Amino acid sequence: MAAAARVAGPARRIVVLNERDLDNPRVGGAEIHVFEIFRRLVERGHSVRLLAASFRGAVPTVRMQGVVVRRLAGNRFSYYPQMPFALRRELAAEPADVVVDLLNKLPFFSPLVTAVPCCAIAHHLFGKTAFGQVPFPIAVATALAEKAIPVVYRDTPILAISESTRVDLIARGIPAANVVVAPPGIDEATYTPGPVSGRPPLILWIGRLEHYKRADVMVEAFREIRRQVPEARLSIIGSGQARGALEQQVRERGLGAAVEFTGYISEARKIEYLQRATLLVNTSVKEGFGLTVIEANACGAATVSTDVPGLRDSVRDGETGVLVPFDDVAALAHAAVRILTDEPYRTRLVTNGFAWAATFSWEHAADVTEDVIERAIAAGVRPTAEPSGGASGPS
Questions:
Q1: Rounded to 10 degrees, what is the CA torsion of 317, 320, 321, 325?
Q2: Closest by alpha carbon to 103, among 162, 13, 19, 198?
Q3: In a designed cystine with 209, which of 36, 182, 242, 318 is the match (CB 3.0 to 4.6 A)?
Q4: Whole-number Å distance between alpha carbons of 298 and 351
Q5: Strand locations in the chain, DSSP E?
Q6: Domain boundaries defined on the chain
């Protein structure tokens, strides 16, 4: 999508806090978002450092897409307790103009740690969903830490990646004027459609295999889908802790011959799957946005997603895809069967999905991130954002 030329501002020294980088075995959509944004800011002349967690076989420092990644010693469990000290050491050794917190796991509370101006990017907050994803003590710690976000980040400019996340932040006590929205983008040169007609009845489920993503609902629905569309196949793409339980569920349901577990695959292979699949399904209990839905739209696959925060933002129900109630196996199966068997209906969803995907731009997301950074720097030690006309949609 063509975008207006942006006037270059001053080069900034930016420190980003996020647990994972692109080489981390637990990499996910948040990391893709981080690097799509900040590699563009590097291309615009800014310097960017990312403080991330280490992992087995990781080198301490690496340059990745122009971003200098510095990995803290230890692992993901020691990462958060040592971050306040590591951030102070980093800023003492090499000053920065701004610190950017990624709010998608435990908050970093940088406004309490440093006098350097701070801003934040919020993918989503866990709330009660943490108790379905991590061990109870960690879930309690996450829930308690999130309760402090409205106090610590009250005067901090925040970029939310969806309207759902913006509403959640405001409901928790963040002033509405301090939150702007910029959804993720998509690389139109990479995510291109394959042939729309003549695709096999292949269903994709893509994501980390974690319990809160609820791939088990897809497996249950697939039993009914197979009864009505016997030639249907399901590819579950991704890795994670829930894989063993899902594989057992598939065996117990007698679906082994029709279900494929690919494990983690490259971006190129993922696109190949999307370009030949008929349907992508997202069954998560909550998402920051649901970028895989837009990627499927761009590649010519229809989509069915649960009607939950984040996915409501990526799907225009009945127009670019279908929303079904969360954990409703029958509704999911019904929606999937209709898409697989009603070609005019599927074609309409796919055609609208193409147009919808074309409205999402990484350049726009980078522009808004740059604006939020400048607002934080202009406001100084305790930034207070000025209203910017409310939420920003894709350009």
A1: -20
A2: 19
A3: 242
A4: 10
A5: 13-17, 47-53, 61-64, 67-72, 98-103, 118-122, 158-160, 179-181, 202-206, 233-237, 259-263, 279-282, 302-306, 322-324
A6: 13-185+361-379, 202-357
Average the pLDDT over 169-175 and give the result: 95
What predicted TM-score, i.e. pTM, was given to this entire model? 0.86
Nearest to 362 by CA among 19, 34, 28: 34
Instruction: Name the CATH topology of 202-357.
Output: Rossmann fold (3.40.50)
Q: Report the residue count for the chain.
A: 395
Q: Are strands 67-72 and 61-64 parallel, antiparallel or unpaired?
A: antiparallel
Q: Say yes or no to pLDDT of 6 above 80.
A: no
Statement: residue 130 has pLDDT above 70: no
Give the pair of three-digit tokens for residue 305: 């997603």
Tokens 């993720």: give the residue.
184
State which CATH number among 3.40.190.80, 3.60.40.10, 3.40.50.150, 3.40.50.2000 fits the domain covering 13-185+361-379.
Answer: 3.40.50.2000
CB–CB of 323/311 below 8 Å?
yes
